[in-house]
Amino acid sequence: MTKKLFIKTYGCQMNAYDSARMADVLAPLGYAPVERADEADLIILNTCHIREKAAEKVFSELGRLKPLTADDPARGKAGALIAVAGCVAQAEGAEIVRRAPFVDMVFGPQTYHRLPELVARAARREGAVLDTDFPVEPKFDHLPAGEGPGALSAFLTVQEGCDKFCSFCVVPYTRGAEYSRPAAEIEAEARRLVARGAAEISLLGQNVNAYHGVDEAGRRVGLGRLIARLARIAGLMRLRYITSHPRDVDDELIAVHADEPKLMPFLHLPVQSGSDRILAAMNRGHRAEDYRHIVERLRAARPDLALSSDFIVGFPGESDADFEATLDLVRAIRFASAFSFKFSPRPGTPAAHIDSQVPEAVKDERLQRLQALLRAQQDAFNRAACGQTMPVLFERPGRHAGQLAGRSPYLQAVHVDAPAALVGRIAPVRIVAVGSNSLAGALADEAAAAPAEMSA
Length: 456
Ligand code: SAH
Ligand code: SF4
Ligand code: F3S
What we know:
The protein is of the alpha/beta class. It has helices at 13-26, 52-65, 86-99, 115-123, 171-174, 183-195, 223-230, 251-259, 276-281, 288-301, 320-333, 360-384, 446-449, 451-455, and strands at residues 3-9, 31-33, 42-47, 81-85, 105-107, 129-131, 153-157, 159-160, 179-180, 200-204, 212-214, 220-222, 238-242, 266-268, 306-313, 337-342, 389-397, 403-407, 413-417, 426-434, 439-443.
């Protein structure tokens, strides 16, 4: 009998990848994914712990879901099993069991391959099952490949965990130490994704450019070499990687931006702050000037490269001058998009215990100013697309009949009147209008672009 599985995913793309793998692990047990929690026999919340509200959202979601864990005689439906996975589970497993005792399973990001066993134990209803180990054997060794058609734009985790210990961040505690998967294993998974329909693959890692796997000969392979290797896969059209750290941008990685047309010219490179004093207090391990220099080298390698970034305002001790330095850096770099956050003290991280916390009102004001600047840069970047012709990967039907929706190399949403047969393919599109959240384009007239061939 098929059972129904509902997974709600919070946080970063690595959680999205993990959710897909959990579904793969549970498929042989008869679980099929559904879109609604109230139909499900098993509900999994795949959680994120990165900022304060993230964990609170999980607790309020659990409150809403609680009624579904009871048998419903009117519908003839047994109560659903409910599980909390991901980074909140890893960090606050015991707290979840205490605050939400109706939860059946709590397990961290490194134990998904043990799900069948956890589900079997939970089904016996002998009390909450807690598994927040960091097993010695990597979970990747035990995850099945998944079957049937997959995503056109797929995620592939190549590296997991973080050894950097930025003073504000929970990730090294929730995801554990850095681990890089062997290159051959990654290539095999990429080939399977392409066989299942992926045209684009985003390589994922908390610190994806700290990747240092080994190849078949036992040689060390960095991210640049890995990208070059994957780019040879026929049928794979686009590659991206996320999230990288400025400290791990090496010569090979810069070179692959110049050499590999399948690698998209759009890079998410978090900087957090433009103040050297704050960068040092954050334990980022580089100065603002280093960041500028890396961006210069990347742009020299790939002149059409656009950047996005992450920022934290109101880190403890951040003065007006420190904040101005961040604005200066933003003005100097010009970002195509960005995420910015108010500093949120996270339990167990060093920055949570620094005395000079910045008042909430100051954080608010700084965030508004920074976001206004970043928004203006993003708008300028989008406006500049108007009149340009760019390759668009068509993903799905658009909102109107005869229309398709796709993505530019810069992940901009693009709507175009185009035949449905173009889904899954890349075609040149001339951008004709710029909206607030998407671009409108028209298929570039190939006949006009190549009159010589036409008349021959
Ligand atoms: N590994 C990536 C970032 C992962 S977390 C890197 O090194 O850049 C994603 C983003 O969340 C971070 O870039 C940071 O901007 C933000 N973030 C992390 N911890 C935070 C905290 N305690 N308060 C506010 N923002 C935080
Ligand atoms: Fe967190 Fe820093 Fe590691 Fe990024 S590099 S995951 S911000 S500790
Ligand atoms: Fe969140 Fe964990 Fe990702 S804390 S951002 S889900 S690594």
